[in-house]
Amino acid sequence: MKIKYTLEKEEKNTKARLGKIETNYGTYDTPMFMPVGTRATVKGLTPEQVKDCNAGIILSNTYHLWLRPGEDVVNHAGGLHKFMNWNGPILTDSGGFQVFSLAKNKKKDITEEGVHFKSHIDGSKLFLTPEKSIEIQNKLDSDIAMSFDECPPASADHEYLKNSLERTLRWAARGKKVHSNPNQALFGIVQGGPYEDLRKLSAIETVKLDFDGYSIGGVANDGESKEDMYKAIDYSIPYLPKDKVRYLMGVGEPVDIIEGVERGIDIFDCVLPTRIARHGQAFTRNGKINLNNAKFIEDFTPIEDTCDCYTCKNYTRGYIRHLMATDEMLGKSLLSIHNIRFLIRLTEDLREAIKNDNFLEYKKYFLEKYEQNKKH
Q1: How many folded domains does the chain comprise?
Q2: 346 with 228, same domain?
Q3: In this structure, what is the dihedral angle of CA atoms 250, 256, 260, 261, given to the nearest 10 degrees?
Q4: Are residue 231 and residue 172 in the same domain, yes or no?
Q5: CA 273 from chain center: how many Å?
Q6: Is residue 158 one of the residues assigned to a domain?
Q7: DSSP annotation string for 85-149
Q8: Alpha carbon of 228 to those of 168, 193, 235: distances in Å?
């Protein structure tokens, strides 16, 4: 079956929503944070460790899996779930974000047919079309596939964004035509930058194509302000159907997750928790801490007293600081576990706040603690 979303409750003071996503691998509550397993693995963690964080859906990357090991290899392995031993739902992105960052000459390399670019591995010339992106995702056999869209730079002007989103709409229709996996949902992507008229146009026209869910794209680009991100959500949400999933792509800062949920977003993904872990950083309710710092050498407390993750139950800041100082792989894995669980716990708390209609009180309480370390 394809995924099915049920809206259970809207919080009385905000647009925050409580929902359920039914999949072939069970039913999951939203709002939800999805860990990223770019190359069919969440960096440094076993599938069992990811599950122990209470993760539901995870995300893999179409572009990277197309290049290595190739969609046919994954298909012959029995699909992505069997290949990576993940007994839960998987969302694959379209590869668009990577492809557009690799396309050097935007005017020449991005054509109506598709995108010309060079492989980041060996520099070989590649060409990706909306049809090819969907065909790859069909073979990967993920539970949710994403339409191939143009990812414009944050600096793009109104005219560029209008032409870009119109092309994205044409590409979405082309991709939908060749989508052939009966067990795979296909999501459309709303673009339009920080402009209200463009977001409205994109949302209305994308919804007309009748996708299984909708994503708000173009919000995690380098150089984009928080204000523009929140505008993009505010301008898109009113035109998206209430009975379909709403996905904010590439967003994982705790503050942005809260702001997104308040505006009506259901699911989020981001590489941030594992990326900052590899640099020794950990999320805490009092803001991020850097365990490379010497002040943690003899700190024999958990990263966070109130955290229920494997790392916090078994290891201390001082030990993890030692692992980072000696470049031991375990340190990065332990921090990744904590950071992923932190964001998932945040969404669990947000669900509770929606249930109790005290979302704004929870937001105020969280932000006061989280932002306080910036003042010191």
Answers
A1: 2
A2: no
A3: 110
A4: yes
A5: 11
A6: yes
A7: T--S-EEEE-SHHHHHHH-SSHHHHB-SS-EEEE-TTT--EEEE-HHHHHHHHHHHT-SEEE---
A8: 20, 8, 10
What pTM does this model have?
0.97
CATH number of the domain enclosing 68: 3.20.20.105
Maximum separation of any 2 CA atoms in the chain, in Å: 60
pLDDT in tens, 30-49: 999 999 999 999 999 999 99
| Contact call for residues 35 and 58 (beta carbons, < 8 A) | yes
201 and 291 belong to one structural domain = no
| pLDDT at 221 (0 to 100) | 79
Q: For the chain, give the number of residues.
A: 376
Strand order in the sheet with 213-216: 32-35, 267-270, 245-248, 213-216, 185-190, 144-146, 90-93, 58-61
Other Cβ atoms closer than 10 A to 124: 8
Respond yes or no: is residue 93 known to be catalytic.
yes
Are residues 260 and 346 both part of a single domain? no
- For residue 276, being part of any structural domain is answered with no
Whose structure tokens read 């026209």? 205
Pairing of strands 289-290, 281-282: antiparallel
The whole domain housing 363 covers: 281-370
**Among residues 29, 72, 93, 197, which one is catalytic?**
93
Q: Of 266, 269, 305, 349, which residue is the catalytic one?
A: 269
Would residue 327 show up in a list of annotated catalytic residues for this protein? no
Structure tokens at 104: 């050097």
Residue 119 lies in a domain: yes
Are residues 202 and 312 both part of a single domain? no
User: Alpha-carbon distance 362 to 354, whole Å?
Assistant: 10
Measure the CA–CA gap between 171 and 186, rounded to whole angstroms: 13
User: Quick check: is 161 in a domain?
Assistant: yes
Q: Do 99 and 234 fall within a single domain?
A: yes
Instruction: Specify whether 231 is located in the same domain as 306.
Output: no
**Helical ranges in 193-316 per DSSP H:** 196-208, 226-236, 254-262, 272-277, 310-314
| pLDDT recorded at residue 167 | 96
Do 77 and 209 fall within a single domain? yes
Q: 10-residue block means of pLDDT along the chain (376 residues)?
A: 97 98 98 98 98 98 96 98 98 89 79 93 95 98 97 91 97 98 98 97 98 94 88 98 98 98 98 98 98 98 98 98 98 98 98 98 97 67
Last-in-domain residue among 211, 238, 270? 270
